[in-house]
Amino acid sequence: MALTRRQKEVLDFIVRFIEENGYSPSYEEVARGLNLASLATVHKHIRALEAKHYLRCGRNRSRSLELAPKFFQEQRKLKEQTLAALEVPLAGRIAAGRPVEAVEARETIDLAGLVYDKDVFALEVRGDSMIEDHICDGDVVLVERTAQIQDGDIVVALVGGDETTLKRFYREPGGMARLQPANPEMAPIRVPLGEVQIQGRVLAVLRKYR
After folding, report:
1. Which residue segments constitute the domains of the chain, with CATH numbers given?
2. Whether 44 is catalytic
3. Which of these, 10, 9, 14, lies nearest to 25 by C-alpha position?
Protein backbone atom coordinates (compact mmCIF):
# COMPACT_ATOMS: atom_id res chain seq x y z
CA MET A 1 0.00 0.00 0.00
CA ALA A 2 1.27 3.46 -0.91
CA LEU A 3 1.90 6.06 1.75
CA THR A 4 -0.20 9.19 1.99
CA ARG A 5 1.59 12.54 1.85
CA ARG A 6 1.32 13.02 5.62
CA GLN A 7 2.44 9.45 6.37
CA LYS A 8 5.54 10.02 4.22
CA GLU A 9 6.24 13.28 6.08
CA VAL A 10 6.02 11.44 9.41
CA LEU A 11 8.27 8.63 8.18
CA ASP A 12 10.82 11.08 6.72
CA PHE A 13 10.90 13.01 10.01
CA ILE A 14 11.52 9.82 12.00
CA VAL A 15 14.30 8.73 9.61
CA ARG A 16 15.98 12.15 9.82
CA PHE A 17 15.69 12.23 13.61
CA ILE A 18 17.27 8.78 13.99
CA GLU A 19 20.11 9.69 11.59
CA GLU A 20 20.87 12.91 13.47
CA ASN A 21 20.46 11.67 17.04
CA GLY A 22 21.05 7.92 17.00
CA TYR A 23 17.72 7.16 18.67
CA SER A 24 14.05 7.47 17.75
CA PRO A 25 11.89 10.50 18.51
CA SER A 26 9.15 10.51 21.08
CA TYR A 27 5.58 11.06 19.93
CA GLU A 28 5.78 14.58 21.39
CA GLU A 29 8.86 15.34 19.30
CA VAL A 30 7.14 14.09 16.16
CA ALA A 31 4.15 16.32 16.90
CA ARG A 32 6.35 19.38 17.50
CA GLY A 33 8.57 18.68 14.50
CA LEU A 34 5.63 18.44 12.09
CA ASN A 35 3.32 20.97 13.79
CA LEU A 36 0.68 18.32 14.42
CA ALA A 37 -2.15 19.41 16.63
CA SER A 38 -2.39 16.37 18.91
CA LEU A 39 -0.65 13.19 19.98
CA ALA A 40 -3.70 11.28 18.77
CA THR A 41 -2.85 12.38 15.21
CA VAL A 42 0.72 11.15 15.66
CA HIS A 43 -0.57 7.81 16.98
CA LYS A 44 -2.84 7.46 13.94
CA HIS A 45 -0.05 8.01 11.42
CA ILE A 46 2.41 5.79 13.26
CA ARG A 47 -0.12 2.97 13.50
CA ALA A 48 -0.72 3.31 9.74
CA LEU A 49 3.03 3.13 9.08
CA GLU A 50 3.22 0.08 11.32
CA ALA A 51 0.34 -1.57 9.47
CA LYS A 52 2.13 -0.91 6.17
CA HIS A 53 5.32 -2.47 7.63
CA TYR A 54 7.51 0.63 7.50
CA LEU A 55 7.80 0.95 11.29
CA ARG A 56 7.92 -1.33 14.30
CA CYS A 57 6.66 0.02 17.58
CA GLY A 58 7.58 -1.33 20.99
CA ARG A 59 4.97 -1.26 23.67
CA ASN A 60 5.15 0.40 27.09
CA ARG A 61 8.53 2.06 26.57
CA SER A 62 9.62 5.48 25.40
CA ARG A 63 11.38 6.07 22.08
CA SER A 64 10.23 2.67 20.86
CA LEU A 65 9.97 3.44 17.13
CA GLU A 66 12.15 1.32 14.83
CA LEU A 67 12.50 1.31 11.08
CA ALA A 68 11.23 -2.02 9.75
CA PRO A 69 12.93 -4.24 7.13
CA LYS A 70 10.50 -3.09 4.43
CA PHE A 71 11.83 0.48 4.74
CA PHE A 72 15.42 -0.65 4.21
CA GLN A 73 14.43 -2.94 1.33
CA GLU A 74 12.72 -0.07 -0.48
CA GLN A 75 15.67 2.27 0.13
CA ARG A 76 18.08 -0.33 -1.25
CA LYS A 77 15.87 -0.90 -4.29
CA LEU A 78 15.62 2.85 -4.92
CA LYS A 79 19.40 3.21 -4.69
CA GLU A 80 19.95 0.31 -7.10
CA GLN A 81 17.50 1.84 -9.59
CA THR A 82 19.25 5.21 -9.33
CA LEU A 83 22.70 3.69 -9.77
CA ALA A 84 21.52 1.57 -12.70
CA ALA A 85 20.77 4.81 -14.52
CA LEU A 86 24.39 5.90 -14.13
CA GLU A 87 25.55 3.93 -17.15
CA VAL A 88 26.77 5.58 -20.35
CA PRO A 89 26.86 3.68 -23.67
CA LEU A 90 30.39 2.82 -24.82
CA ALA A 91 30.29 3.86 -28.49
CA GLY A 92 33.80 2.83 -29.41
CA ARG A 93 37.50 3.13 -28.66
CA ILE A 94 39.72 5.82 -30.09
CA ALA A 95 43.44 6.61 -30.26
CA ALA A 96 44.86 9.87 -31.53
CA GLY A 97 45.15 9.85 -35.32
CA ARG A 98 43.03 6.74 -35.84
CA PRO A 99 39.35 6.21 -36.61
CA VAL A 100 36.93 5.02 -33.93
CA GLU A 101 37.11 1.28 -33.34
CA ALA A 102 33.49 0.14 -33.32
CA VAL A 103 32.15 -1.87 -30.40
CA GLU A 104 30.08 -4.74 -31.80
CA ALA A 105 28.35 -5.84 -28.62
CA ARG A 106 26.44 -3.30 -26.60
CA GLU A 107 28.70 -2.14 -23.77
CA THR A 108 28.37 0.54 -21.15
CA ILE A 109 30.63 2.42 -18.79
CA ASP A 110 29.34 1.91 -15.25
CA LEU A 111 29.62 5.22 -13.40
CA ALA A 112 27.71 3.71 -10.50
CA GLY A 113 30.85 1.82 -9.49
CA LEU A 114 32.42 5.14 -8.57
CA VAL A 115 29.79 6.03 -6.02
CA TYR A 116 28.17 2.77 -4.88
CA ASP A 117 28.33 2.39 -1.11
CA LYS A 118 30.39 5.59 -0.85
CA ASP A 119 29.65 9.02 0.58
CA VAL A 120 30.47 11.11 -2.50
CA PHE A 121 30.21 14.81 -3.24
CA ALA A 122 31.27 17.01 -6.16
CA LEU A 123 33.43 20.14 -6.25
CA GLU A 124 34.12 22.54 -9.10
CA VAL A 125 37.84 23.23 -9.45
CA ARG A 126 39.17 26.78 -9.46
CA GLY A 127 42.78 27.48 -10.42
CA ASP A 128 45.66 25.64 -12.10
CA SER A 129 47.51 24.05 -9.21
CA MET A 130 46.78 20.48 -10.41
CA ILE A 131 47.16 20.86 -14.18
CA GLU A 132 49.93 18.24 -14.51
CA ASP A 133 47.50 15.72 -13.00
CA HIS A 134 45.07 16.79 -15.76
CA ILE A 135 42.77 18.59 -13.33
CA CYS A 136 42.01 21.98 -14.83
CA ASP A 137 40.15 25.12 -13.91
CA GLY A 138 36.41 24.48 -14.35
CA ASP A 139 36.64 20.68 -14.01
CA VAL A 140 34.41 18.89 -11.52
CA VAL A 141 35.97 16.35 -9.17
CA LEU A 142 34.03 13.56 -7.49
CA VAL A 143 35.28 13.21 -3.92
CA GLU A 144 34.77 10.35 -1.48
CA ARG A 145 34.24 11.71 2.01
CA THR A 146 36.90 9.85 4.01
CA ALA A 147 39.85 10.51 6.28
CA GLN A 148 41.53 7.18 5.40
CA ILE A 149 44.14 8.18 2.81
CA GLN A 150 47.59 7.15 1.64
CA ASP A 151 50.59 9.24 0.65
CA GLY A 152 50.18 10.41 -2.91
CA ASP A 153 46.37 10.52 -2.87
CA ILE A 154 44.75 13.63 -4.31
CA VAL A 155 42.73 15.04 -1.44
CA VAL A 156 40.49 17.88 -0.39
CA ALA A 157 42.21 19.30 2.68
CA LEU A 158 41.13 21.96 5.14
CA VAL A 159 44.25 23.81 6.27
CA GLY A 160 44.32 25.79 9.48
CA GLY A 161 40.56 25.58 9.83
CA ASP A 162 39.76 28.14 7.13
CA GLU A 163 41.41 27.33 3.77
CA THR A 164 40.37 24.39 1.61
CA THR A 165 42.68 23.14 -1.11
CA LEU A 166 43.00 20.31 -3.65
CA LYS A 167 46.48 18.76 -3.57
CA ARG A 168 48.43 15.49 -3.35
CA PHE A 169 48.99 14.57 0.29
CA TYR A 170 52.27 13.34 1.80
CA ARG A 171 53.33 12.74 5.39
CA GLU A 172 56.79 14.04 6.22
CA PRO A 173 59.16 13.57 9.18
CA GLY A 174 58.63 15.65 12.28
CA GLY A 175 54.86 15.42 12.21
CA MET A 176 54.52 17.54 9.10
CA ALA A 177 52.26 17.25 6.07
CA ARG A 178 53.11 18.28 2.52
CA LEU A 179 50.30 19.29 0.18
CA GLN A 180 51.91 19.04 -3.23
CA PRO A 181 50.54 20.91 -6.25
CA ALA A 182 50.90 19.42 -9.73
CA ASN A 183 52.20 22.66 -11.19
CA PRO A 184 55.95 23.40 -11.27
CA GLU A 185 55.30 27.11 -10.83
CA MET A 186 53.69 26.58 -7.43
CA ALA A 187 55.35 25.70 -4.13
CA PRO A 188 54.04 22.92 -1.87
CA ILE A 189 52.24 23.74 1.33
CA ARG A 190 54.00 22.37 4.42
CA VAL A 191 52.11 22.48 7.70
CA PRO A 192 51.92 20.42 10.91
CA LEU A 193 49.70 17.35 10.48
CA GLY A 194 47.45 18.64 13.25
CA GLU A 195 46.56 21.66 11.12
CA VAL A 196 45.30 19.53 8.21
CA GLN A 197 41.81 18.06 8.17
CA ILE A 198 41.23 15.67 5.27
CA GLN A 199 37.72 16.09 3.93
CA GLY A 200 37.90 13.56 1.12
CA ARG A 201 39.85 11.74 -1.60
CA VAL A 202 39.35 12.39 -5.31
CA LEU A 203 37.73 9.48 -7.17
CA ALA A 204 37.25 10.94 -10.64
CA VAL A 205 37.47 14.09 -12.75
CA LEU A 206 34.62 15.26 -14.98
CA ARG A 207 35.13 17.80 -17.75
CA LYS A 208 32.61 19.49 -20.00
CA TYR A 209 33.69 20.99 -23.31
CA ARG A 210 30.71 23.21 -23.89
Report:
1. 5-75 (1.10.10.10), 80-112 (no CATH), 116-206 (2.10.109.10)
2. no
3. 14
